Amino acid sequence: MRRVAISWQNGLITSIASATKSLHTTKDNHSCKIIMSPPLVSLDLPDIWSSNSNQYDSIPPQKFSNQQIATVIDGKSIAEDIRSSITSEVRRMKESIGKVPGLAVIVVGQRRDSLIYVRNKIKACEETGIKSMMTELPDECAEDEVLSALSNFNEDSSIHGILVQLPLPQHLDEGKILNALSLEKDVDGFHPLNMGNLAMRGREPLFIPCTPKGCIELLIRSGVEIIGKNAVVIGKSNIVGLPTSLLLQRHHATVSIVHALTKNPEQITREADIVITAAGVPNLVRGSWLKPGAVVLDVGTFPVDDPSSESGYRLMGDVYYEEAVELVSAITPVPGGVGPMTIAMLLSNTLDSAKRTYDFH
Ligand code: GUN
């Protein structure tokens, strides 16, 4: 049988004659032939924005007529409240049963952003009384070294959460490594079973990924209604875009996902009551992309050189803030918006995991 499949190449649709694939069952001699178009589950195209709005300083802000003063959602302060409750709970656990939660972090390589994130996570553990351990491996390390570090933490009963900082260097198989993580210690929620349970109605994941959980927490604590609202998630990464869209669906939003190959991202985003953007492209979301009165959460944290700052760089979000702030009803700043919430949710997931282990309520 000859079938025709569709493949996407550089945004063009080309028809190809697909090969057919036979699968045989081992149980009996009858071969069970399943016809599949090979590209059916995976059209492996790079998710890279070719936007000309990837400019840092040079675009003058456009003025919008229907001006409105936006509420700036103070993620830093909300995260501090949550961390303070976690500190009390960790103390109560220590006083009651003589145990504290433990988090292990594995970081491979020297990516500047990863090292900053990891340092902040370890510092946050120290400040809340959570025990932390870190394994740092060189860029060129073998997969077995990562798996061995992971296996040690899987076996360590004082560790209740394990985080493998992503992205990993290209030569490492991220899927294989995340699959090896103990489901009960997957505080990032990236194990396929946790992610699958998040996707399915009536199933409960053991952990919800930290950034999406932080975003929903920000919406709830800011009094933003989610049920029935049009939500647009920009970016479809495993870390943020995908789980955020799943979590918004669980909260009964009508969810659209806009990504690097979307034809009309501006038009679709302008329909949204809630925009959560995680593209990693500074100034991608201009005022013209936003419906007046929308609520905007900016997950982007792109480091750009800034000799005037102490660290030599500053973080830029996906949203052109000066334009958006005149249009929307609420917005998170970068930094000080979603970032601190991600860390607070990691601490919260680690505490929950330890409570589950010790049956401590
Ligand atoms: N890289 C960027 N964000 C995250 C995160 O939340 N968890 C992990 N493991 N890696 C990341």
Automatic annotation (TrEMBL):
Q: Which PROSITE patterns match?
A: THF_DHG_CYH_2
Sorted alphabetically, which InterPro entries does this protein's record hold? Aminoacid_DH-like_N_sf, NAD(P)-bd_dom_sf, THF_DH/CycHdrlase, THF_DH/CycHdrlase_cat_dom, THF_DH/CycHdrlase_CS, THF_DH/CycHdrlase_NAD-bd_dom
Query: Oligomeric state and partners?
Result: Homodimer.
- Per its UniProt record, what HAMAP family does this chain match? THF_DHG_CYH (MF_01576)
Protein name (database record): Methenyltetrahydrofolate cyclohydrolase
- The scientific name of the source species is Acer saccharum
Matches recorded under CDD domains: NAD_bind_m-THF_DH_Cyclohyd (cd01080)
Say which domain of life the source belongs to.
Eukaryota
UniProt function note: Catalyzes the oxidation of 5,10-methylenetetrahydrofolate to 5,10-methenyltetrahydrofolate and then the hydrolysis of 5,10-methenyltetrahydrofolate to 10-formyltetrahydrofolate.
Query: Which keywords accompany this UniProt record?
Result: Hydrolase, Multifunctional enzyme, NADP, One-carbon metabolism, Oxidoreductase, Photorespiration
Q: Its annotated pathway?
A: One-carbon metabolism; tetrahydrofolate interconversion
Q: Can you cite an annotated GO cellular component?
A: cytosol
Q: Which residues form the Tetrahydrofolate dehydrogenase/cyclohydrolase NAD(P)-binding domain?
A: 209-356
A Gene Ontology biological process noted in the UniProt record is: photorespiration
Q: What does the record give as the reaction this protein catalyses?
A: (6R)-5,10-methylene-5,6,7,8-tetrahydrofolate + NADP(+) = (6R)-5,10-methenyltetrahydrofolate + NADPH
Protein family membership: Belongs to the tetrahydrofolate dehydrogenase/cyclohydrolase family.
Which molecular function GO terms apply here? Answer: methenyltetrahydrofolate cyclohydrolase activity; methylenetetrahydrofolate dehydrogenase (NADP+) activity
> A Pfam family for this UniProt protein?
THF_DHG_CYH
Domain Tetrahydrofolate dehydrogenase/cyclohydrolase catalytic: from-to ranges:
73-188
